[in-house]
């Protein structure tokens, strides 16, 4: 992969944007490789979580327009939706993480602008340093956000906040992001906090965790008539699974469960 590091340690995929000299400004290769990294993580049933981060002082400063401007034809190709999805390459870089059946935590430091913010919002959780700064930077370039923000931000904040930040492109702080629901938690060491959270998740059945993510991704805007069948189907599948049996047996015996790799 080009400027995207992918390393698995203790059943956690550490995916890092690695172009620190440019504050991890996105190239087209990086955008493609982020979607590939999400696909790779989704296929690895031994994984229990993913941490997204940026090398150097910043998470991601957004699209590197100096680089992108040299490849205008590729930019236009990247805007064409894939045959198997409504998402194009830009949108997949952010939204593909919602399909990975494990918790995905974005650890945000420094700048989190434009496409970088949209990638972070595509994660399930965002852990930030207090001094990180944020912006829907596309307004500066006379554009709108087009890397899946419309789908992700609508689950997190109110429409007036989304409109304001998109129309103005203003920078905002981690404290403001937390208040608006765009950041999950703020920590002096967000990477350590993310790892601590993941350790707590690893105590639970990987199939139950995957099903919990699927449950909310597929029902969040649905009423009971559409949501209840999803609950029923997921629960029936879990009840027939090996990890559910392991969890029940360990719970009754008051022992630590020893789960097998994700089955679903």
Features:
6-stranded mixed sheet; alpha/beta; 12 helices; 9 strands; 264 residues; 2-enoyl-CoA Hydratase, Chain A, domain 1
Mean pLDDT: 95
In total, the number of strands is: 9
Uncertain segments: none
Percent of residues in helices comes to: 40-55%
Number of domains: 2
State Rg: 19 Å
Q: What is the end-to-end distance?
A: 27 Å
Which oligomeric state applies?
Answer: single chain
CATH topology of the largest domain: the name is: 2-enoyl-CoA Hydratase, Chain A, domain 1
User: What CATH first level of the largest domain would be assigned?
Assistant: Alpha Beta
In the sheet with the most strands, the strands line up as 1-2-3-4-6-9
CATH homologous superfamily annotation of the largest domain: 2-enoyl-CoA Hydratase, Chain A, domain 1
Percent in strands: 5-15%
Keywords: Fatty acid metabolism, Lipid metabolism
InterPro entries: ClpP/crotonase-like_dom_sf (IPR029045), Ech1-like (IPR045002), Enoyl-CoA_hyd/isom_CS (IPR018376), Enoyl-CoA_hydra/iso (IPR001753)
Protein name: Enoyl-CoA hydratase
Catalytic activity: a 4-saturated-(3S)-3-hydroxyacyl-CoA = a (3E)-enoyl-CoA + H2O; a (3S)-3-hydroxyacyl-CoA = a (2E)-enoyl-CoA + H2O
Architecture overview:
The two termini are 27 Å apart. The protein contains twelve helices and nine strands. The protein is 44% helix and 14% strand. Helix 1 links the parallel strand 2 and strand 3. It is globular.
């Amino acid at each position: 992969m080009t400027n995207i590091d992918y390393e698995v340690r203790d059943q956690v995929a550490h995916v890092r944007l690695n172009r620190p000299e440019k504050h991890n400004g996105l190239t087209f290769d990086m955008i493609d490789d982020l979607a590939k990294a999400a696909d790779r993580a989704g296929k690895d049933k031994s994984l229990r979580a993913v941490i997204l981060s940026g090398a150097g002082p910043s998470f991601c400063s957004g699209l590197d327009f100096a680089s992108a401007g040299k490849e205008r034809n590729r930019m236009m190709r990247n805007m064409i939706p894939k045959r198997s999805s409504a998402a194009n390459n830009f949108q997949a870089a952010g939204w593909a993480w919602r399909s990975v059946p494990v918790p995905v935590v974005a650890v945000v430091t420094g700048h989190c602008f434009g496409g970088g913010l949209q990638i972070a919002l595509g994660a399930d959780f965002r852990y930030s340093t207090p001094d990180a700064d944020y912006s829907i930077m596309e307004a500066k370039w006379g554009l709108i956000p087009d890397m899946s923000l419309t789908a992700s931000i609508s689950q997190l904040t109110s429409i007036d906040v989304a409109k304001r930040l998109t129309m103005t492109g203003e920078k905002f702080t981690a404290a403001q992001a937390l208040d608006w629901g765009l950041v999950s938690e703020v920590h002096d060491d967000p990477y350590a906090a993310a790892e601590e959270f993941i350790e707590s998740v690893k105590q639970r059945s990987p199939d139950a965790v995957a099903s919990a993510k699927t449950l909310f991704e597929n029902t969040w805007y649905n009423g009971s008539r559409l949501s209840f069948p999803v609950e029923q189907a997921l629960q029936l599948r879990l009840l027939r699974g090996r990890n559910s049996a392991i969890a029940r047996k360990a719970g009754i015996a008051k022992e630590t469960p020893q789960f097998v790799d994700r089955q679903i």
